[in-house]
Design goal:
Blueprint: H1 12-26, H2 38-45, E1 55-56, H3 58-68, H4 75-84, E2 92-93, H5 94-103, H6 109-124, H7 126-140, E3 148-149, H8 150-161, H9 168-177, E4 182-183, H10 185-197, H11 213-228
Antiparallel strand pairs: 1-2, 3-4
Helix pairs in contact: 2-5, 4-6, 7-8, 7-10
Length: 229
């Protein structure tokens, strides 16, 4: 990995180590990818890390988002994280970066900016969006927990469904006053299916359907709110 120290005459050990790093990184680059440079991609990665770091941390991520002109809270960043198969929100490892950027053929800020429209189109594709939505659960939850804490869940639901689900505002209010402290993966996945299949007036909601109790309670709450309004 390149460092940011003053130049010095390399020792033989330094030279061998440097060659090994370049070789290992370059192996990830397909031979046919003539326009993509793994060395340039590596140097780009290290614009956002300290010399001894092997991952981009939240501080570096903030600068990265600023450079590409995208707010960290923009859903296109979730689409990018999905393409990079990032494991943890707010971080990109060197391996995730190398493989993911190779996949979308980006080795510079300018190339990624040209791919932003492509990353947005993934969100408009029903199957890709479903995969991104499901990925978001494991991406955003604390890795030592099987469920997602409710505050994170509300933030991620706002990001993923806030502009596309007419009942999102009501569902958010329901979560605000509910007893729920976490959302599990089954609940998370069913929220998407509910938003896609149940009408805004709940007229086609099946009380005998296999929805999680969370959604049954939301329906009861929603009907009660309408009755009292």
């Amino acid at each position: 990995m390149p460092t940011r120290r003053r130049p010095r005459s390399p020792s033989s050990d330094d030279t061998r180590a440097k060659r090994a790093r370049v070789t290992n990184w370059s192996k990830r680059e397909p031979v046919s990818s003539s326009s993509f440079s793994s060395k340039r991609c590596e140097a780009w990665f290290h614009e956002y890390t300290s010399p001894d770091e092997d991952e981009i941390s939240p501080e570096g991520m903030e600068k990265f988002c600023e450079d590409i002109g995208v707010e960290p809270e923009n859903i296109v960043m979730l689409s990018l994280a999905w393409k990079l198969k990032a494991n943890r929100m707010g971080y990109f490892t060197a391996e995730e970066w190398a493989k993911g950027m190779k996949d979308i053929q980006c080795d510079s800020t300018e190339k990624l900016q040209q791919k932003l429209d492509y990353l947005k189109t993934l969100l408009d594709h029903p199957v890709h969006f479903k995969n991104i939505y499901r990925y978001a659960f494991d991406f955003a939850r604390e890795k030592d927990q099987r469920s997602m804490d409710i505050d994170t869940a509300k933030a991620m639901l706002s990001l993923a469904l806030g502009k596309h689900w007419s009942l999102y505002g009501s569902f958010h209010q329901f979560l605000e006053q509910s007893k729920y402290k976490v959302i599990n993966k089954d609940q998370w996945c069913n929220i998407l299916e509910f938003s896609r299949s149940v009408a805004a007036d709940l007229s086609n909601y099946d009380e005998d359907g296999a929805w999680p109790v969370l959604l049954d309670e939301f329906v009861d709450w929603f009907k009660e709110q309408k009755k009292n309004s």
